[in-house]
Design goal:
The chain is an alpha+beta fold. It folds into two domains: 126 residues, Arc Repressor Mutant, subunit A (Orthogonal Bundle), CATH 1.10.10; 77 residues, 2-Layer Sandwich (GMP Synthetase, Chain A, domain 3). It is 55% helix and 14% strand. The chain has eleven helices and seven strands. It has a four-stranded antiparallel β-sheet with strand order 1-2-4-3. A three-stranded mixed β-sheet has the order 5-6-7. Helix 1 runs antiparallel to helix 2 and helix 8 crosses helix 9. The longest helix is centred in the N-terminal third of the chain and has 17 residues. The chain starts with 10 loop residues before the first helix and ends with a strand.
């Protein structure tokens, strides 16, 4: 999905509407969802970077905010990721704090049956917002009928996460990358040209490495080669 960043004109209304949608989805859900959405609303309200469209906060800070232990934080974040309510942009590795993005599509899906309960004005605004997201969503579809090796499936999951976390960057640079192999902890990819390969290595290899490390835990380096004619 292509998230709609809540900055610029009417940004305040967009943020409040999104928070309201999260709240009513929780209030009308099972107790587990109620708790999850209440915790998420607190985290989004206090720590979400709307300009970057990401939530980056440590487990210790979340534990203090939610009045729970860090083990509970890990379970809660996993539940939100499994439910696609949050999308992981980069893992918390090498001393860095993990970063997540709010999946507005999923928030809309969960809350849509209850929009009219808030009011006709809220219903109209949310339907308009969902239409804009739908029109701007440019999904990449790749069809490949070859039998897939486990490493290829791992790359496909990485590819999907890259598309979800930053659709514009994915369309511009990552969409043409092909999986070559994963040997000796090196992820080898192929790009359509030497220029694309070098540009990605120079400017975006860190982003790929952060996401790919979720599927290739032993990853040490990324190499991008030019596709053969």
């Amino acid at each position: 999905m292509k998230s709609m960043r809540s900055t610029g004109p009417h940004a305040g209304v967009k943020k409040y509407d999104l928070l309201t949608a999260m709240a009513i989805a929780g209030l009308n859900g099972k107790p587990t969802l109620q708790t999850s959405m209440l915790r998420l609303v607190a985290a989004i309200t206090a720590r979400y970077n709307w300009k970057l469209d990401e939530l980056s906060v440590g487990q210790r800070d979340l534990a203090r905010m939610w009045s729970v232990d860090e083990r509970t934080v890990k379970r809660e974040v996993k539940r939100l990721l499994d439910g696609k309510i949050l999308l992981q942009l980069r893992p918390g590795v090498r001393g860095r704090v993990a970063a997540y993005r709010l999946n507005q599509d999923e928030v809309y899906r969960l809350s849509a049956p209850y929009w009219k309960q808030v009011g006709s004005d809220f219903l109209a605004r949310m339907e308009d917002s969902r239409t804009m997201l739908s029109l701007s969503d440019d999904k990449v579809v790749r069809v490949d009928f070859r039998p897939r090796l486990p490493q290829e499936s791992a790359w496909e999951r990485t590819f999907t996460r890259l598309a979800e976390s930053d659709p514009h960057l994915h369309r511009s640079w990552f969409a043409t990358l092909l999986f070559e192999n994963f040997v000796d902890d090196i992820l080898k990819l192929r790009a359509p040209s030497s220029f694309v390969a070098q540009y990605i290595l120079t400017h975006h290899s860190g982003r790929i490495r952060d996401v790919a490390s979720l599927e290739f835990p032993s990853l040490k380096r990324i190499e991008i080669l030019q596709q053969t004619p």
